[in-house]
Automatic annotation (TrEMBL):
Domain AraC-type arabinose-binding/dimerisation span(s) in chain numbering: 250-298
Designated name of the protein: AraC-like ligand binding protein domain protein/Cupin domain protein
InterPro entries associated with the record: AraC-bd, Cupin_2, GPI/OXD, RmlC-like_jellyroll, RmlC_Cupin_sf
PANTHER family, per the entry: OXALATE-BINDING PROTEIN (PTHR35848)
A GO term, aspect molecular function: metal ion binding
Domain of life: Bacteria
Length: 320
């Protein structure tokens, strides 16, 4: 394998984990697949495969689900954004998932506010895939489940220990003698969580693909950042580039950079080696590496570019 291929995780080579989270046996959520592409990820299962384990300041992952499969209500300590690669998805939020919702289609991006429970469901007619960026290197240290999710999981044999490890009682697993079950969130902590409406969330947290295509006609559209369309400082910034806004010149970045094509095929050169990126592929470019990227064929071409920043990956993007 050439060196450049070590930078790339191909969509067709993604290895799913079907036991990544506490709701893996819960009806309605038991067919979902979780992918950890770059970084340690957020899985609660030792079965999770990590494609590129480098710590780059943020994590890249994905969720794949058949129609009507949903991901249960949860929260993270740090930023979580999604863009839709394939299909049509409903995102919902709040203590019971009924505070607000938004439907996203291919290429749309959602910077989910912190401090609220969120879930998502594939409402399309075929297998769907959403790509995720999570703030910080230790994204696995801050997943909180709504109490009803933990109760439902226990009814179907899965118990989450306070050590963050899943135990499957259907397989004969038992919690070690010195590990207690993960406690349910207290009423006091639940009361601190925001319940924003769709009108609260939509203007400042969602960007639509065709709007970004128009905005990136002459220059990259800065989607998430301090002065971006969606203003936030989650420890990384997100740009959207299309055919006419990308420079073919060889250049470097001071930060670790990830390229994630949405449409079209892209010729990528890193340190003089060349390859082609396709939709669903993920490419890591380390800080200081000389590279260039250009569309390799005519037609629609777009990609998301994520770069680490010096901002702390903390409680950003909240709605109160």
């Amino acid at each position: 394998m050439s060196n450049i291929e070590n930078h790339i995780v191909r969509y067709g080579d993604l290895k799913p984990c079907k036991t990544a989270f506490i709701d893996a046996h819960t009806p309605g959520s038991d067919q979902k697949e979780n992918f950890t592409i770059i970084g340690g990820g957020v899985s609660e299962s030792p079965d999770q495969h990590v494609h590129i384990a480098d710590q780059i300041g943020f994590n890249i992952g994905a969720a794949g689900q058949p129609p009507r499969c949903r991901n249960s209500l949860h929260d993270h300590n740090t930023a979580e954004i999604f863009f839709v690669l394939k299909g049509k998805w409903r995102f919902f939020w709040g203590r019971w998932g009924d505070a607000g919702e938004v439907t996203l289609e291919e290429g749309d991006i959602f910077n989910i506010p912190t401090g609220i429970f969120r879930g998502f469901e594939n409402i399309g007619t075929d297998y769907g895939m959403i790509m995720a960026v999570l703030g910080g290197d230790d994204a696995g240290g801050g997943v909180h489940w709504a109490p009803q999710v933990i109760k439902d999981a226990a009814d179907h044999g899965l118990v989450l220990g306070e050590n963050g490890v899943l135990y499957d009682t259907k397989k004969g697993d038992v919690l070690p003698h010195n590990v207690n079950p993960m406690p349910l969130m207290s009423d006091e902590d639940l009361d601190k969580r925001a319940e924003p409406t769709t009108a609260d969330v939509l203007p400042n947290h969602v960007a639509r693909y065709w709007d970004l295509m128009a905005l990136s006609d002459n220059q990259p559209a800065t989607v998430i950042g301090a002065d971006a369309i969606l203003r936030d400082r989650p420890g990384f910034e997100v740009d959207f580039l299309s055919r006419n806004s990308i420079s073919p010149d060889v250049h470097t970045h001071d930060q670790n950079t990830v390229l994630m094509p949405v449409r079209g095929h892209w010729k990528i050169s890193i340190q003089g080696e060349e390859s082609v990126l396709n939709p669903g592929d993920t490419c890591l470019i380390k800080a200081g590496e000389a590279h260039s990227v250009t569309p390799s064929m005519t037609g629609e071409a777009s990609l998301y570019r994520i770069r680490a920043t010096d901002d702390p990956a903390g409680l950003t993007g909240s709605v109160h």
